[in-house]
Amino acid sequence: MAWSPEKTEVKSWNEWDTLRHAIVGRADDCHIPPEEPALDAKVPEDSDMRGQWGRRPQETIDRANELLDNFADQLRKRGVRVDRPVSIDHSQPVTTPDFHTDSQFGCMPPRDVLLTVGHEMLEATMSYRCRWFEYLNYRPLLKQYWEEDPNFRHEAAPKPRLTDADYHPDYLSEKIGDAKRLEWAAEKFFVTTEEEPLFDAADVLRFGKDLVVQHGFTTNLKGIEWLRRHFPDHRVHTVNFPGDPYPIHIDATFTPLRPGLIVNNPQRRLPEEQREMFHKNGWEIVDAAQPAHNTPPPLCYSSTWLSMNVLVLDPKTVCVEKSEVYQAEQMDKLGMEVVEVELRDAYAFGGGLHCCTADVYRDGECEDYFP
Ligand code: DAV
Question: What topology does CATH give the domain 19-362?
């Protein structure tokens, strides 16, 4: 049945079929959270964010919201239904029987928290203590979808305990250095331990019947095993990218554009032995263009590679951040129509165009691209 904007339906099996309905995050009340093990391991050692925490400056929140609102309008003008989360009070501490932290994070980016697979939206475990309650920002929407779509499966992965046993103390040192970090990444020694299943939704890419999941700081092997058991009709593949000293989230590293074509970060190439399923089925993996910037914007967790954190609207159309001219040029050469979206001043809130959205509905069914 064709999609209709009057009827709510949750369904999305991959990263590229025509997008009809999406969530776009908000910068409201976003905080730089206090220090905690998993977060500290990700903040770059030379970052301006080290050692400070609290609510982000209001003018940066306003500016990010302006860009996110514009992006939502741009999508609406192209016929995409767009919903927005309802921000909780992120200044509230998180206290469980196992840990305490003095503030939360924000309602950006939804891609980190919500994994849509077919008719299901799954709330990820998360691995940062400050993000433990982040799903609450999306509950009003998920409640609505559940009430309006009788086939919608609202699922939540087991909440992790996030005691100190979840984190390797080696990563707590102030100065580790990239050489050591790269050595650890090559050994798959990450900040999170195998104490319990942990995953962020943004470590997962959906290729129809196959789910490709990055093992790194925010997703451990037990998290991937949990996904495997949770999605018994899927094949779940573990990948890792040894060139990344701060490996969180797959969406500035490995970006499928359409069946048969993936853009891969040239500093974080997929190891040869993990390419077999793609090569055997005729998929091409090309190096992404260089980012247009040498440094991330102020108070930003992410690297300059948000350049390749694009949102595919359909197999011929892709949203690229406006200042990322090299990435846009490459997309054009790869045969994609480029939609420019200004978002750089919102990067600090947790990411780019893929990050700041979550799929609710894309056309298409669950296909087997790797038979
Ligand atoms: O390159 O810093 C950003 C991914 C955000 N979801 C990076 C990864």
Answer: L-arginine/glycine Amidinotransferase; Chain A (3.75.10)
Q: Which residues are catalytic?
A: 200, 249, 355
DSSP state of 348: G
pLDDT reported for residue 41: 82
- Listing DSSP states for 82-97 in one string gives EE------TTS-EE-S
Q: Is 303 in the pocket of ligand 1 (CB under 6 A)?
A: yes
Query: For residue 368, what is the DSSP state?
Result: B
CA distance 320 to 324: 7
Q: What is the complex's ipTM, to 2 decimals?
A: 0.96
Q: 320: burial class by Cβ within 10 Å (0-12, 13-18, 19+)? A: buried
Ligand 1 and 236: CB distance under 6 A: no
Radius of gyration of the chain (CA): 19
Q: Pairing between strand 81-83 and 19-24? A: parallel
Q: Is the CB of 351 under 6 A from ligand 1?
A: yes
Pocket test for ligand 1, best of 303, 308, 347 (most atoms within 8 A of CB): 303
CA of 248 to the centre of ligand 1 (A): 6
Q: Is the beta carbon of 251 within 6 A of some atom in ligand 1?
A: yes
Say yes or no: CB of residue 202 within 6 Å of ligand 1: yes
Position 320, amino acid: V
**Beta sheet of 120-123, edge-to-edge order:** 114-117, 120-123, 153-156
Which of 323, 264, 265, 249 lies closest to 293 in space, CA to CA?
Answer: 323
What is the residue with the minimal CA distance to atom 2 of ligand 1? Answer: 302
Distance (angstroms) between ligand 1 centre and the Cα of 58 equals 24
Domain ranges of the chain: 19-362
Q: What are the tens digits of pLDDT across the range 201-236?
A: 999 999 999 999 999 999 999 999 999 999 999 999
Residues 6+ apart with CB under 8 A from 278: 262, 285, 370
